[in-house]
Amino acid sequence: MSETGVGKERLLSILLAPHVSEKTARASQDGNRVVFRVRRDASKPEIKAAVELLFKVEVESVQTVNREGKQKRSGRFNGRRNHTKRAFVCLKPGQEINFSEEAK
Fold first, then answer.
1. For residues 29-49, b (16+ Cβ closer than 10 Å) or e, as one string?
2. For residues 35 and 9, what is the distance between their CA atoms, to the nearest angstrom?
3. Cα gap 51→72, rounded to integer Å
4. What is the pLDDT of residue 39?
5. To bridge 24 with a disulfide, which of 35, 82, 83, 104 should be the other Cys (CB 3.0-4.6 Å)?
């Protein structure tokens, strides 16, 4: 159990993928920020603990964004894409996550 009171298995399942877009590239250049797609039921302390556990870095703060899925239509049927949640993780000065090294 970690300081958040959840097990290691839960922490390993919280981060789904890094989120790559123009906005997130700008955020990573301006400050020491990394953006992840996370589980919708993940809390900020859980996200912080998961990033620190997986990447061995120190996290300063976490901001989250809930995003509604877009309305889509196929013929006469209406549908909706899945809702998603993103986490903007601010790292402490001097900390860095390099995804190209993690894949090796």
1. eeebbbbbbbbeebebebbbb
2. 21
3. 33
4. 96
5. 35
Cα atoms in the Cβ-side hemisphere of radius 13 Å centred on 28: 17
Q: What angle do CA 53, 99, 60 make, to 5 degrees?
A: 45
- 35 contacts 27 by C-beta, under 8 angstroms: yes
Reported pTM:
0.83
Q: Which residue, 59, 49, 45, is CA-closest to 97? A: 59
**Average pLDDT over every residue of 75-89:** 95
Of residues 28, 39, 24, the one with CA closest to residue 98:
28
